[in-house]
Amino acid sequence: MLASRACRSSIMIGRALDPPLMRRILARLAELDAPWNCPHGRPTMRHLAVLPSAAPGLGPGRAGAGARGGGGSKGGDGAGARGADESTQEAEDTEEEDGS
């Protein structure tokens, strides 16, 4: 019940936000232990790009891989959520170890 109430009173898709409100939201999200998903499991953020300076271990062909996105709201495609990007990386690491 609390999760449903919180969801109904949250900022919904399509609502215009001014820059000061955006900053307040991001500052408050940064204070949470797990800001990546709402209580229903939907992502609260969207991964847009990987900057080479922020991810020096990623090669040129892999830096934009997470930015392609697509798909629905389920499945943890929010930034930092354990989703497609991390699963893909684990699969690639396993292939390298197996010599595939």
TrEMBL record:
One of its GO terms (molecular function) is ATP-dependent DNA damage sensor activity. Residues 87-100 have a biased composition (Acidic residues). Residues 58-81 have a biased composition (Gly residues). Residues 51-100 are annotated as: Disordered. It comes from the Eukaryota. GO terms for cellular component: MutLalpha complex. One of its GO terms (biological process) is mismatch repair. InterPro entries: MutL/Mlh/Pms-like, MutL_C_dimsub, MutL_C_sf. SUPFAM superfamilies: DNA mismatch repair protein MutL. This is MutL C-terminal dimerisation domain-containing protein. The lineage of its organism: Eukaryota, Viridiplantae, Chlorophyta, core chlorophytes, Chlorophyceae.
